[in-house]
Amino acid sequence: MRWSLNELYDSFESEAYKSDSKRILEMISEVNTFAEKELTNTGEAKEKAEKYLRYDATLSKLMSKVLSYASLTMAVDARNEVAKANYARIAMKLSELTKAEVLFSRFVAGIENLQEVIDSSEYLKEHEFMLKEIRKNARYLLSNEEEMLISRMSNTGSKAWTNLQNILTSTLLVDIELDGEKKKLPLPAIRNLAYDKDPDVRKKAFEAELSAYEKVEESSAAALNGIKGEVLTVSELRGFSHPLEETLLQSRMEKETLDAMFTAIKESLPMFRKYLKRKAELLGHKKGLPFYDLFAPMGESQMHFTYEEAMDYIVKNFNTFSRRLGDYARNAYEKNWMDVEPRDGKRGGAFCSNLHAIGESRVMANFDGSFSNMTTLAHELGHGYHGYNLKDETILNSSYPMPIAETASIFCETIVVNAALKEMDDREAVTILEQSISDATQVIVDIYSRYLFETKLFETRKDHPLSVKELKNYMVEAQKEAYGEGLDEEVLHPYMWLNKTHYYSADRNFYNFPYAFGLLFSKGLYAVYLKRGEEFVPEYDELLSVTGKKDIIEVAEMMNIDVTRPDFFRDSLKIVEKDIEKFLSLTEK
Ligand SMILES: [Zn+2]
Q1: What pLDDT is attached to residue 147?
Q2: What's the gap in Å between 380 CA and the centre of ligand 1?
Q3: Tens of pLDDT along 26-64?
Q4: Percentages helix, strand, coil for the chain, rounded to the nearest 5?
Q5: Distance 462 CA to ligand 1 centre (A)
Q6: What are the two backbone dihedrals, phi and then psi, of residue 352, each rounded to the nearest 5 degrees?
Q7: 8 Å CB contact between 280 and 293
């Protein structure tokens, strides 16, 4: 139940680890010297571009090995000081690469016959997408001096605000009385009580959470105004019409696609509200669901797995999709790529880390034997399978944008959940279905409310810093518009702007719509699979393998999917609708 990291390094003291870390530091200064000397003019463009990309590839490979070794070690052993120190030492050096990166961007943008240069070299051809993307994005670069200044000032500007907000929320203790005992709990523990079986606990936790926020609302608002203010200033200087434009560019996504998606999402809201109202009724509420019962568990799953059984179940069902997928999961299990044993000092939750440098991946989870834990393993193995399909691409072509990052993971999760739903009785099915609809409600309806809120936030911040009252009002307005009569409008959550960390990161603006896109894209692909069966499989693998070197429209086109029109998203939402209809009919009486 524990993973092996020996495939990366034997230890931090090993010769291999030491020499790789040393090499990274040497190469950073080498590449900066090279960039300063050679990349200031476009003579011998082909040779210089090749040389820089080779530096970049080698460095990326070394850094991913060294940093992954440290971060994976820390993930299962938070108190490992050696790992922490090693990680910090290398991570700190990364910002020094900005210089070479900016110079290379400007260099590529300055090559007049870029296509010709690319065509003259096999190596450059392989990285055509990357080079063209660099050129496209270079028009938003400021002068070298301005870039350096912004990057340094942000350490004492937006990043300092982010830090302050982290401190405020991570040290906030919430007063609550549970089982007649007065307690002070940290915020994450209080928010977890939203999943408690006891309705009283859920309500109490919600009220305690809201009143705790009053202690930090003014300072959090100041942080948020500081961060969003800086974002507006910098994005205007760069020539973006709106911060959303910048996120779309990073996401390799067109505005047209975003609009098409939201058109379909808006149409689907009434069906989500039907589900929410039914859930409210089942829990004894008459005016829609109060916010504190959004995550209330419905029934209890009786399904239980040992780790071995869970993996057998996953491999068996992955095999119905393809042997290649099944073999991938079996291999991950047999080769000890997974660390699933909960233990002291290990991080909570689950994640997958794709180690392109060695063509493997590692999955971390805290497995307790429940059904939802089994599906988490399937989800994370899906991320791993995505990485597996990218392993023959060069490392520079192996990173994909956020909106398609969840494609393979949700796909794999869907495979096992659908298989399970076929086997279980109605009572069990209600629990599993409800969980999956509740997840979709968050990713579609709640995400829509966050998008509306952030839009309003930027619009207002352009004019003036927002007061706490304005922030609370806009949040409640956004929730009303998204959830409608599905939620009890007297029990909404006016402080969601305070606890979602994405709002407080200057380079993650509108970090909401990519989640909705990810879910709908994956569901849509699954629908295509159901229609086309076996012949879909190799095309799906091929699609995953090019996600690092195509934009979203092109990736979707490989399956004849047009993401610039609402129809595709409508079809994906129909899959959720079917689940909701089934849930409604199962809970009729
Ligand atoms: Zn995921």
Answers
A1: 85
A2: 6
A3: 999 999 999 999 999 999 999 999 999 999 999 999 999
A4: 70, 5, 25
A5: 34
A6: -125, 135
A7: yes
- Neighbouring CB atoms inside 10 A of 139's CB total 10
Calculate ∠ Cα 406-358-125, nearest 5°.
Answer: 75
Among 83-97, 174-188, 393-407, the minimum mean pLDDT is found in 83-97
- pTM equals 0.91
* pLDDT surpassing 90 at residue 98: no
pLDDT at 107: 96
Q: Which residues of 65-81 are buried (b: 16+ CB within 10 A; e: fewer)?
A: bbbbbbebbbbbbeebe
Please tell me the predicted confidence (pLDDT) of residue 192. 85
Separation of 567 CA from ligand 1 center, angstroms?
Answer: 25
**Residue 296 three-state SS:** coil
Q: What is the pLDDT of residue 155?
A: 84
How much distance in Å is there from the Cα of 517 to the middle of ligand 1? Answer: 13
CB atoms within 10 A of CB 103: 21
Q: Is 61 exposed, middle or buried (0-12, 13-18, 19+ CB in 10 A)?
A: middle
pLDDT, tens only, 109-146: 999 999 999 999 999 999 999 999 999 999 999 988 88
Q: Is the separation of the CB atoms in 473 and 492 below 8 Å? A: no
| CB atoms near residue 335 (< 10 Å) | 12
- Which whole number is the average pLDDT over 576-585? 95
pLDDT band at residue 22 under the 50/70/90 scheme = very high
Q: How far is Cα of residue 133 from the mean position of the Cα atoms in its chain?
A: 22
Distance 338 CA to ligand 1 centre (A): 15
Sheet with 351-355, edge to edge strand ranges: 338-339, 360-364, 351-355
pLDDT for 404: 93
User: How far is ligand 1, taken at its centre, from the CA of residue 409, in Å?
Assistant: 6
- Gap between the Cα atoms of 398 and 392, Å rounded: 9
| Centre of ligand 1 from the C-alpha of residue 406, in Å | 5
DSSP string, 332-347: HHHTT-EE----TT--
Question: pLDDT tens, 522-554?
Answer: 999 999 999 999 999 999 999 999 999 999 999
User: What's at 92, amino acid-wise?
Assistant: M
What stretch of H or E contains 565?
none
Query: What is d(CA 17, CA 6) in angstroms, rounded to the nearest whole number?
Result: 11
DSSP 466: P
Q: Which long-range contacts (CB under 8 A, 24 or more apart) does 235-240 make?
A: 237/142, 237/146, 238/140, 238/141, 238/142, 239/139, 239/140, 240/140
Say if residue 343's pLDDT is above 80: yes
CA of 475 to the centre of ligand 1 (A): 26
Q: Is 512 helix (H, G, I), strand (E, B) or coil?
A: coil
How far is ligand 1, taken at its centre, from the CA of residue 299, in Å? 25
> What are the residues whose beta carbons fall under 8 Å from the beta carbon of 541, sequence distance 6 or more?
322, 324, 389
For 362, phi then psi, to 5°, come to: -130, 135
Start-to-end CA distance of the chain, whole Å, equals: 43
How many Å apart are CA 327 and CA 2, to the nearest integer?
A: 20
* Residue with token string 């900016």: 102
What is the distance in A from the centroid of ligand 1 to the CA of 381?
9
**Distance between CA atoms of residues 521 and 552, nearest Å:** 10
